[in-house]
Predict the structure.
Amino acid sequence: MADQLSISLRAWRPQNKLKDSLPYLISRINEQKGSFRNITEASLKEEIRAAQAGESKAVENGDDEEATEDGQDTKAKGDELSKAREEIIKQIGAAHTASSHALDFVSLLLSKHTSKTAEATISPFVKANIPMGSLGAEIMQEPSKSEAEKTSEGLVSLGWRMQSLSRSADSLLKSASRLEQEVEREARYWQQILAVKESGWSLCRLPGEGHTLGVRFGFSEAHAEFRDRGLAALRRDPDGNIKLDRGPRWQGDKQLRVRLLQNGKPTATSKQPPAPNSEDLSLPQLLLRARNSLFDSELHHELTRECRNLIAQGVHNIGTTIRFPFNENTEIEIDFVATDPELGPPLEETKDGDPTIPSAVLTTLRILLSHAHRENLIRRSQPPGPITDTPSPRRFYSLKQSSTLPQCKKPKASSPASPTPWRAPTSPSPRK
């Protein structure tokens, strides 16, 4: 059937009468020959004479070849059309013959009971050669069966029923077991959700994922970049436990570390909380560590931004490390290191040095950022100014100017995600 010719049943394209009009022909002559002023009788005769002399032979040869090819193509297409037509007519005839035989058989079978209806549909040839009512049909009585055969068929039927009931029971038991496991997973999931809610964390729906719950662990007064990162999804794993999904930008929890360097060697390190593996921590402890990591990340960002303006005072920033002089041969180094041992090398602490100065510097920096958050809250609590076409400029924190820690007035309404003093992951929840 792959060699059959496909015939298009589309109508012929209507003739465009616009192309045969006089204005169209005049425009074509202007495009080909230019203006009528440049056309003379002598130039036309010269053009006709050159065309007849130089191209008459080539045109004749080309015309002969084209005529031969056109004739062959026309003959081949005619043969294909004839074959396709014959094949279609042959298939139609076979279908008509089969349907006529079926109609004669049914009409002859019904002629025994309704002769008038059958005579109207039977063919003249069958009506003339076969008497009406000569073909009939009857219901044959089934042969009698012995008692042994009946008993055997009953046992087979009973066996099939028992097998079907057994399969249904097994399917129901599997469904009940699967449903029980799913109920246990859901109960475990909602128990952990309730523990997070009772710990004081704010739950909400994720934007764009209304069926997924999220938890806010960030600070509402932080910069927009860090405030948006303070939202994590609470997704359920196959075992029913909650997995904290903090998005594709999260690369592990980190924290600030302050070290006292003497002649380039660390002599004292700030006290760091214990850093157990994530698998050993409960969900509230993971949220607390994530909050502390986000707070230190914003603090490191602000310190890096401010140290660019303090190069003249000996402050240097190399990668994630910030150094500034403390005494003649002593420097203070602030770096951003991983908290989880699985994501980075373990934190090295010097056992001989006194960690009082590095810990005091780290605590002071965290207090300054908390004070900047509180100033931002007071600023937002005030009535807004008049509306103008000029957008309000972005406000930057200035930690070095907040070192005096002026006394702030208590705001009228506290923010639900206001920062609290930094705590270790093993301490209780930040708010209730």
In short: The helical segments are 22-33, 41-110, 115-121, 124-129, 147-198, 224-228, 283-307, 356-381. The longest strand covers residues 254-262. DSSP finds eight helices and nine strands in the chain.
